[in-house]
Every structure is written in structure tokens, then in C-alpha cells.
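so my prof wants the structure for this chain in the C-alpha cells format not the other one, which i didnt know existed until like an hour ago. anyway here's the sequence
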Amino acid sequence: MAPTRFPGPIGQKNARSIDSNTLVRTQAPAPGPMGSGHSHPDVADPYVRELRELGLDLIQMAFDLAGIFDPTPISDGASGLLALSRGQWLDAIISGASMIPYVGDLAKAGKLPRYLKVLERAAELAEKSSDAAKALLPGLEKLKQVLDMIPSGSNQTIDRMKLVVDRAVKSSTAAVKNLPDISRHFTFRQFEKNGKVYQEASGRLGIPGKVRTHRSKSAQTKVSGGTGDDAGHLIGDRFGAPGTSENLTQQNWKSNRQGTFRQLEDRWAKKLKQGTGIDVKVSDVTRKGEDRPFMRKVEWTEIAPDGTRTKNELTFANTHTPKSRDQQGIQPTVTSPQKDNVIGVDFVNKKKLD
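here's what i got, hopefully its the right format
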């Protein structure tokens, strides 16, 4: 059985260095792992998981608190179902208890200190990051609506929650609305050349967290739904690029989430935050008559704070994964065990890896 081979760059000329299976045709340092990042909501890293959990927590808190003055079991039933779906059996039992008049109110009172702690964490993240503000604002707004219906002075913890949520909603709304939208500054075109179809995106990258982000789940589903691939952005949404179909193609999900192209994006993000400007052109190449790109060509220029310009070029393979082969009915092209077909370098000891 052939070993799993992760997608990586192919076809470089005049390579000066190798890193993470990446060849860089420039004097600039090769991109290396920078962590999985937090600007892609479809990436299951700890930061994104925390945002998702906090978002659910805020909605569940709103349902639970609504049950305090809702004479019907509707709010509590919804909260209990939400808790059950998350595997929180104890919380589900407590939420169910509030369907019994009066008893439920007392049971919920014990939750308030934990609610305040969760809310303070959500407010902290929302105030520090525009991405977090955008993700958490719906839950914060819903919780504020419920808290506003509870009389002030009835409970010290509730009063503290009101202050925290008011501040969080105000700062989050400002963060989401005031970020500049630079999506119109990116250009896209599609053309044929030598029997291949090129889908090209180009533009100057915005600084992550300083520009408005754009994602369209419907566009992503249309591009990659049922294929086993991700709908990968040619230019990442964290850089301010559009989230619509002209900026999406079918991409190996490993490459999109933690592969060498993702590592290159993380390197760009770090440089942008340090004051380097970056102009990019990303082209996905598809054989005529096929639907899925087989490679991605990336050209970019880094403009240092002193005005020095450095040009770079990379080519990435867009190989299939077992998942995409299975869902697209594609047979493996390699069926025998493979050995010595990937070159690796240990930069610490300056030797080729076995």
C-alpha cells in the first residue's frame, strides 16, 4: 500500500532552498509552518473551536435566561435540545427542570456565575479581534435582547452581565462595520492557454484583522459540495478578498487547512503585520475538459518598509486525497508501495533526510 503523500510544490527551476517540501525561487526565506491560524472558520484549530463553542454558549444562555420569565416551555425546550446536541447531559437536565414553574428558576440561578465567566471571555475576544467580533456578534445581540428584559437590580450577577454584554455588542458592532472593504480591489479572469484553463486572482493583500472578511457558504457548497475537496480561496478571505465563486476552486482539503500553501498564507499574514506590502497573483490550472485544478501557480512581490522589492514564485500540486477519490469515483494512479520519491532536508543538521 502506497504511503500517504501530502500535496506540495512542484516544478521549480533554479531552486535555492527547500523547506517543508517547498521550493522557493528567490533569496527570500522559504515559508515554514506558522501554525494553523484562526482566520479560516472552516479550519478546526483551537481558536476556531473556542469561537464556535462560545457562540453556542451565548445562544444557550439566551434561551435559558428567557425561560426565567417565559411562562411557556418553549425557551427551555429549545435550550435543552441545544444542550443535548452538544452532549451536555447535566445542563440538559437542569434546563428541563425549568419547564416546571418556579423550580426551574431556582435551578438556573446556580448557572449565573458560569454564565458571567463565559460572557466575559466572549467580550474579551470580541474586543481584541474583528474576526471574533464578527463570529460572536449574533449571539451577543441575542443575549442582550434577553438581558434587557430582566429588571435591573434583581440580581447582581445579571446586572454585571448586562454591563459586559452592552460593552461587547457596542465594540463588536463598531469593529464589524468600520473595517474597510477592499474586496473590489482584487481582479479575476479566466482564460485558456496550451490546452489548459486558468482561473486567476490578483491584488494587494490587506492586513488580517484590519480589513473586512467575506465568506459565502452557498458559494463554497456550489464549488465543492460532495466532492471530498474544500472550496479553497485563491486569495484568502483574511486578506480582504471576495468569498464568491470567482475566488474559489476545488482544493485538496489537507493543503487548504494545513499544507504548504496554507503555511505560505500564514507567512504572508505575519509579514503584513510587520509592515511588508504584498502583491499576489494566484492561478489555478485545470486541464481542458476537467472540472478540478491539478496545480496552483503563485507569484508574489514583497515590498519591504524600506521600499526593497523581492519577487517570488511557487507551484503547488493539487493532488487528490482518499476522500476526494472516493467521492469523485477516481481510481488511484499509484497502486504499488512507494519509496524515496520525496526529498526532505534537515536544516538544523544540514543533511538530507532518509
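also thought this was worth mentioning. The chain has two domains: 17-30+182-352, 46-178.
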